[in-house]
Amino acid sequence: MAILECKDLTKYYDRTLGLDHLSLQLEPGRIVGLLGPNGSGKTTLLKIANGLLTPSSGQLLIDGKAPGPDTRRLVSYLPERTYLSDWMTVVQLLDFFCDFYPDFDREAAEHMLTALEISPTQRIKQMSKGTREKVQLILVMSRRTRLYLLDEPIGGVDPATRDYIIHTILTNFHPDSTLLISTHLIADVERILDDVVFISRGQLVLHQSVDQIRQERGCSVDDLFREVFRYAE
Ligand SMILES: Nc1ncnc2c1ncn2[C@@H]1O[C@H](COP(=O)(O)OP(=O)(O)OP(=O)(O)O)[C@@H](O)[C@H]1O
């Protein structure tokens, strides 16, 4: 069964169309890039999957169930904007995640924090934007869940840290889990992707494996994206 399935998923914000009859299935064990120009509906899709927005019509199912209390334990979500209370220290956040999520692997999180030289006593509000992003991603990736939804996880971090984070995602990733990652930094992440989903104006444009793109089209995902979404000159 698909871990995430959209059937004719449509979302209106008043009169603005966020998603337009999007149908999609993600299979277990895949790392999937959710790619599209600004305003194409990526965040809207991830918010619906996490139960933060409800569809206007159509359905989104997580392991066959509508997002809600039953699906929360299956999904680890990194939102677009930080949601961490900024007075908290790293240790307090680790305690919080341990209490809140029985699947949280504290040891793995501590290991990554040490590797990135993030002090356990530092408060969120004292951190740079990039460090805050790193902490948040570490917390989200240290849960042992079936579906990870990451909305722009590496936008604010430097290239060396990006490499470390991408490596971390891979080493922490259980082969039966699924990861859906929305990003504009395609060249940085494409080597870890199994599949890509291109969306534009809320509609599905392409859902294909990266191997197929390379073999059949003879180009990288980054090249294909630039070609598909090129503006007329
Ligand atoms: N709260 C909102 N109210 C009204 N319109 C919204 C709202 N949130 C998103 N939209 C609209 O829905 C569409 C999809 O937006 P969404 O944020 O999902 O795109 P995105 O692909 O994540 O964009 P980006 O790459 O810029 O982050 C856009 O036209 C956007 O303007």
From TrEMBL:
Pfam families assigned to the protein according to its UniProt record, in alphabetical order: ABC_tran
PROSITE patterns: ABC_TRANSPORTER_2
Superkingdom field: Bacteria
TM annotation in the entry: none
MF terms in GO: ATP binding; ATP hydrolysis activity
Keywords from the UniProt entry: ATP-binding, Nucleotide-binding
Domain ABC transporter: 4-226
Name this protein carries in UniProt: ABC transporter
Organism expressing this protein natively: Vescimonas coprocola
